[in-house]
Amino acid sequence: MYKEIYGVEPPKNSIDSTKPSRIMQFEWDEDYSEEDFDDKLDNAQEEAVVIAEEIFNSSWSKIKKEIEGTNKKEACKYSFILGFLDYMKMMDKKAEMIANEVKNMSEEDMKKLIKDFRDCEDKNE
Prior knowledge:
By secondary structure, the protein is mainly α. 64% of the residues lie in helices and 0% in strands. The protein has one domain (2-124). It is built from four helices and no strands. It starts with a helix and ends with a helix.
C-alpha cells in the first residue's frame, strides 16, 4: 500500500524516516495491566449513585408532568436540569449543616478535622 501511495518502497525503519508515512509500528505495552482498569465503584461513587436515585425518585412526579408531550431530547434535558438543581439544593443544605457544626467545634477538633481531610486526600492520590 505504501508503494502504491508514495511510489517508492517503504523505509525499513519508518519511525526514523524523514518522509511522512501512514505506516505505524505497533509494539506490546509492557506496562499494561488489566488491573489498572477497575470498573468497580469506589465508596464515593456508590454514595453518589444512591443520592442520584433519591433525587430521581423524589423528582419523578414533577418530571413526568413537565415532559408530557415533549420529544426525547427535551425530556432528557429537562430531567437532567431538574436533577442537577435538586443536587445543588442538597449540597447547599449539606454545606449549611457542616457550617453549623463547625461553628461549635473547638480549635483542637478543627485541627483534627483538617488533618483527617488531608490524610484522606493523600490516600486518594
